Amino acid sequence: MELHNLTPACGSLHNSKRVGRGVGSGKGRTSTRGHKGAKARSGYKKKIGFEGGQMPLQRRVPKFGFKNINRVEYKAINLSTLQKLAEDKNLTSIGIAELKEAGFISSKHLVKILGNGELTLKLDVQANAFSQKAEDAIKALGGTVNRIGESKE
Description:
Elements: H1 57-60, E1 74-78, H2 79-89, E2 93-94, H3 96-102, E3 110-114, E4 124-127, E5 129-130, H4 132-140, E6 144-147
Parallel strand pairs: 1-3, 2-4, 3-5, 4-6
């Protein structure tokens, strides 16, 4: 095989269809668009979801629900995760910085500690929110719970 022997794969190249070049070409007159109707006109563009005049699905199905603009999304971290992190890195205090360093959260996440799993170490935990079960489990072992962004009254 040499450069002068190279050819494109069979069937990969096609001659373009030259429409509107006279009746003798076989593709003149209507230029393969058929007779009349929107599709025969220039500038035709079908609407998204158009179903040939039938009532489209997005209009047949009723609307429901809403988006709460005041919703606060938390990244959930379980007690079992805290336990494993504390054992692996030999920590007594876990905060946002430790969770970020371990790769559990990014800088924009708010953190909520949930009560799934067992906790056996006394930990000082710092997060944006805590479930009641998680808070009770941390305090039962003598640890402390610090909420970030909460005013101390």
